[in-house]
Amino acid sequence: MNQAVNKLTIKDYTSDQEVRWCPGCGDYAILKTIQKLMPEFDRPKENQVFISGIGCSSRFPYYMNTYGFHTIHGRAPSIATGVKLANPELDVWVITGDGDALSIGGNHTMHALRRNVNLNILLFNNEIYGLTKGQYSPTSKVGTHSPSTPQGSIDLPLSPCAVALGSGAAFVARSIDTEMKHLSAVIKTAHAHEGASFIEILQNCPIYNDGIFENVKDKKIAADFRVEIEHGQALIFGKEKNKGIRLNTKTLSLEVVTIGVDCPLEEVLVHDQTNLTLAQLIGAMGGDDSPVAVGVIYHNPKPNYVDDLFIQREQLSQGKDQGKLNELLRSGHTWEVA
Amino acid sequence: MDAKTEQHQNIVVRFAGDSGDGMQLTGTNFTLATALYGNNLSTFPDFPAEIRAPVGATFGVSAFQIYFGSEDVTTAGDEVEVLVAMNPAALITNLKYLIEGGLVIVDTGAFNAKNLAKAKYLSNPLEDGSLQAYKVLAIDIHSQVIAAVEEFGLSHKMSLRCKNMWTLGLVFWLFDRDKQSTIDGLKAKFANKPDIANANIAALNAGNAYGETAELPSGVEVYKVPKADQQPGTYRNMDGTTALAWGLLAGGQLANLGILFASYPITPASGLLHTLARRKDYNVITFQAEDEIAAVCAAIGASFAGSLGVTSSAGPGIALKQEAISLAVSAELPLVVVNTQRGGPSTGLPTKTEQSDLLQAIYGRHGDTPLPVVASSHPGDCFDTAIEAVRLATKYMTPVMLLSDGYIANASAPWLIPDFDEYEPFPVEFHDKPEGFQPSLRDAETLARVWAKPGTAGLEHRIGGIEKSYDTGDISYDPDNHQKMTDTRKAKIDNIANDIPMQEVHLGNNNAKLAVVGWGSTYGAIHQAVKRCIREGLDVSHIHIRHMWPLPTNLKDLLAGYDNILIPEMNTGQLVKIIRSEFLLDAKALNKVSGQPFKISEIEDAIKSELN
Ligand SMILES: Cc1ncc(C[n+]2csc(CCOP(=O)(O)OP(=O)(O)O)c2C)c(N)n1
Ligand code: SF4
Ligand SMILES: [Mg+2]
Fold first, then answer.
1. Is the CB of residue B213 less than 8 Å from the CB of residue B1?
2. How far apart are the CA of A264 and the centre of ligand 2, in A?
């Protein structure tokens, strides 16, 4: 069977629907990456299920030639949980946006991660509400001008990765829409992870929020604005590969250092993806004075809901797949009337 | 005591006490003994909303009512003949239910100044003559119990906990019930605490012996309630929650489907989640979601994946689910939504009963979203109604709303256990042929969309809430297509009317002067009231509707055959609106929204004033 699966190509995963995102939208690149990656998963195509909420990003399932369900705004993690509980054999993907996952659906995102249901959650973060024509979102930077915030937004954004870590996610990563190689690698690791995995994908919306991730994407300058993290590797970045991240043990915060100038190489922080405290610090980087971390921020498997549920069920049913209803109806106290 | 006996065909007994007095346990034990004695019966617990109200407070009074006798008994009754009041708060809040000349049993040990003040009595009702209209059996149960359990060396507080069993022993004597089932129950319950078991049994025996030997006031007599003529078979006591839970499991087996039951706790619906959570050996998975929206969505996801998704709540939670239910209508997936209605709006009266979500069930949601609605009318009926909901959901690929309420959920009655092997299975056939497959394929007769589940090779497809092409299932914004799809969704549900039983007349003729038309838990009270009126020679019938939407095809003509139509409902008039608008018939409403079920007499009076 696996042989046949292996022969599948990107074409097999491409549906016959015309893709309707705006020209230049980052969603195209993500779609292509995933369609191309699918055949590598050594899994029957019919076992792949894409569940989305509502938003530009949530149109995604229509373009995948797999099972798909375009549901309602914010609820994709809940629908996906139901799918997985009904059939744990399925690979269940959640495609969501920053508004979908963190505004209306914040509660469900948090609980799917906390419960550790085996879902692959991909959050397309364009820091804007695309589908409804450009209102600011819960990830928009302060001062974002939008139809609903004409004088600039005044409320602080939240960081998707921080929310995921705070919710107890066992797998949290960040990647970039147009970087196929990086994104593929991160998604592959997420897919192999047993339990909920969460990937924030920085996605450009050329129509309503163009260029917000330019610093981390533009080949000419990106090296100075992002750090590619890998388990066991030192956090080194910069065009000259001479900058590093050091943990200041006095202030319990991260600081940018120049290797060999204000910090010896041995003092540069080494990424440990199983360390939650480090993950929280690293995930939060990306302000004015630190680079954005991309890669697997946290990966520390824990018991997952679906496995544990079926263990409980197995204990109750003791191998029988179905109780006898007539026995149930007559269980407990009964009496005869002659 | 040399007791005279008083003969009753049917009688109502009400136990009332502080939340901590164990009145529910007393009531259920009395119920079991009464069922074993051979009476027909119906019970209703009346809980306070507060979990742990201060001792002696009127808002902490918990009551349990049982109606039993030799005739068919379909409500918990309204004319309380015997009231047990364990403290002043229980007396002041429950005396209104006792008929004149009825018997009230009180524990004088609890009628001290402090408790009287908490109940807001200005003087002691046992001494000021205010109970003159009743027979009063005033016993210092406090001291009786302390004496009865002395040998077990329990603390004062623990000893007093046996008060309820002492009282139950006395009531057993009063009604000539066998106390063995209670003794067995106590032994099982306190298997690890033999002292507690023995103390309770001693209290029970002492109360029973007290009846035998003490000099009771004149007028207090032993009640003789003859056995009922019951259909032979195996019986059990059945409450609405258990019946509904087991009905869902039965429906799943008949449909040959696993069930995902997803819910969020809310009174009075939580019992269903609790009951099913213990039954994972019956091919059900229960999932306590983070809110009602997540619950219904998980159920929808499960249905998409080939299980039967079921979700359950009360009014406020159903309101939250409505957007997602519309998705299930649009995606044409099976789903069962159980609404155990309670007093609304908002938090309303969470522990009390009401029928005010009928319009929400039929006309709720957004857009044109018709779906079938069924209502159960008494505890045992929940079993069959749940099976019917599963049948309709899977056969027609649609959400189905099942209405129960707080009264049915908590009430119980003996149930003649059916033979499940005699139920007709309705196994689901999943689509599995890739040739010519479209997610939009429909059964020509039922108009149901195909059910093709993930994991089936060659049937990969996408569905969603955007309007779909009638022909391919792909997204379509075409105006004519939307008209056609809307019409199709409506026709599919309308057509269900041809697949449900004709409406029957439950009692009386097809063309009497008056039809009393009900739905849901008013069944018992209407039935009893109409029966009494027919006995008195009045020309009245009882019609009770299970299929609330679509309505049975013969209902209009059937109702048109009556001179007048009266619709009692525990809301401000919801079914009556539907009957009037659907059939252009001049139906009248009889409404009650006090959180308490209708009394038989209230419906009887309405019938009489209607016929005069
Ligand atoms: C219940 C409900 N409320 C509001 C909307 C309108 N709506 C659709 S998508 C959306 C925001 C989408 O933003 P995001 O999740 O960031 O997705 P994007 O379009 O940016 O990919 C809103 C507000 C809706 N469809 N349903
Ligand atoms: S509005 Fe923005 S996010 Fe939406 S499709 Fe267009 S470019 Fe993409
Ligand atoms: Mg967005």
1. yes
2. 45
